[in-house]
Design goal:
This protein is mainly alpha-helical and 68 residues long. The protein is 75% helix and 0% strand. This is Signal peptidase I.
């Protein structure tokens, strides 16, 4: 027979609750990650050469305006 001091049902219940919650969280993380990736829009392609030309043009215009 197990001594009565070791039968702490509240501690056992708390441990089981934490254990079950951790399993539920660990199982749901990949599922949620997949669903979130499905919601996100497709990545936008950026033409860096065009963007650079546009910024240089803006900088040159800004310098000309300061001189005038």
């Amino acid at each position: 027979m197990i001594p009565k001091e070791y039968l702490n049902w509240q501690a056992f219940a708390a441990f089981m609750a934490v254990y079950i919650l951790s399993v539920v969280i660990l199982v749901s993380i990949p599922i949620l990650a997949q669903r979130i990736s499905e919601w996100s829009p497709a990545p936008v392609e950026v033409d860096f050469a065009e963007e650079r030309k546009r910024r240089l043009k803006e900088l040159k215009l800004g310098k000309k305006r300061r001189r005038a």
